[in-house]
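User: Please predict the structure of the protein below. I'd like the answer in structure-token form so I can feed it into my own downstream comparison script.

Assistant: Understood. Taking the following sequence of 261 residues as input:
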Amino acid sequence: MISAGVAAFLVALVAAGCSIDTRTVIVGSAAGRGDAGQGDVAAETVQLPVCKGTPLKAAIITDLSDAVPGTDSKGQPQIIFGLDPAGLGGGTFTYAAPFLNAPMLSLEPKGDGQALRVLADPGVPVDGGDAWFGFGFGLFYIEGGCLDATGYAGVQFTIEGSLGTCQLRFGVSISEDGRGEDNPRGGSCALGAECYSPLSGPLLPGADGIVMVPFAQISGGNPTKTVDATAITGVNWQLVAPLTGDPCVATFTVDDVSFVR
């Protein structure tokens, strides 16, 4: 079992019309001084629509029993799950800070099903600000670009294996913090690299490997700091590599990911 304790964003999702609501996110507003005493001149403010979540049909995100290897819209490898058109589906994505290696993902038999195997050997960070790397599940429905998990309090998953010296955090991706260019159907942030998802603090999985992370303990996103349960676009796991000491090398599985009340 894991003995020691995510900023990413989504893979391109399946093509469909994006459902939006009346909320907007203000992504740029400024006032500049005009020439020759003309006073302050307001800069143009950009507003993007926030995705309107499709109501959650079941608590389960994925148990990976139906997951298969595939590719995303850019031809990059990913694990795809939930292929039933009537239900929740999605695909994996990975990411890493400059000069670090992203995790490698694969499927591994487990009991009468399978789990997601994560192999991480990121290398040594060049500084503390670029020590992050990770992976996640981008979520999508046939209609709309995000889901509404109103009434649920957090996310639970099972994790088994070894984190080595890596630190683990968990995050929930939401429309307000998702880059529109990465996720045209669900993202509503136009701040480029300044768009990032909220994260939990370091996780310390128990001996049974079951981890429950309440939405209330996930924060620090930009521009929206906390989890908006009505506009969820994905879930993700971020690891942090140490600057000194033994390098971070981790191998573990993730399974049975679901929302909990």
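That's the full token string. The CA atoms of residues 21 and 52 lie 5 Å apart.
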